[in-house]
Design brief:
The chain is built from eight helices and no strands. The protein is an all-alpha fold. Helices cover 74% and strands 0% of the residues.
Length: 203
């Protein structure tokens, strides 16, 4: 009896391996790892917002509308944080993407407004925050692209025969991905380059 069970277990493992079960697990874990990186980079950006807003406020307190937009957008981002498992829900993923897009837009408007304040543009703290934001936006783009590729690899794999039968048997469905209707905008981080502060007028 023990020999029979052992033989059955070996046969089952062989069948699952041959039907792509192991690769499904590998691809699924890759998606979870890439999602964690996406979330980490978005959180890194959110963490920069309070200091950025306070710095701008010190030189441009009258830009209350833009400052409020950034603060509110950051709050919305914090309210829609989702796990890798929740990202498999297209509705939740769309909500997450919308919130992050709103923060991107608010930050872009804040940086445009900052152009009107030469003293702010030359402030060392602001320059450091600007550099950190630029680097973070680049990291977000890389993390998003890697996540997109991981989901694509997973979805292609579970649609292939006979893997599709294995996926259906164990409840592995196609996963939603970041929308690509505006992929050019997604791939291009907000502009955070600033012209040098205006020199004093010559006599």
């Amino acid at each position: 009896m023990r020999l029979f069970r052992l033989s059955f277990a070996v046969l089952l493992i062989a069948l699952l391996s041959g039907c792509g079960y192991n690769q499904i697990q590998t691809n699924d874990e890759a998606i979870k790892a890439q999602w964690s990186e996406v979330v980490n980079q978005y959180q890194r950006r959110a963490d920069l917002v309070p200091n950025l807003v306070n710095t701008v406020k010190g030189y441009a307190a009258q830009e209350e509308r833009v400052l409020t937009e950034v603060t509110n957008a950051r709050a919305r981002v914090g309210s829609v944080g989702i796990s890798a498992e929740q990202a498999a829900d297209p509705v939740k993923l769309a909500e997450f993407q919308k919130a992050q897009g709103e923060l991107s837009g608010a930050l872009s408007r804040l940086l445009v407004v900052s152009e009107n304040y030469p003293d702010l543009k030359s402030n060392q703290n602001f320059l450091e925050l600007q550099a950190q934001l630029e680097g973070t936006e680049n990291r977000i783009t890389v993390a998003r692209n890697r996540y997109i590729q991981s989901v694509q690899a997973y979805n292609v794999h579970i649609r292939q025969f006979p893997v599709n039968m294995t996926a259906k048997m164990f409840g592995y469905d196609v996963k939603p991905n970041f929308s690509v209707e505006n992929e050019a905008a997604i791939s291009k981080p907000p502009t955070v380059e600033f012209a040098p502060a205006n020199p004093p007028p010559s006599n």
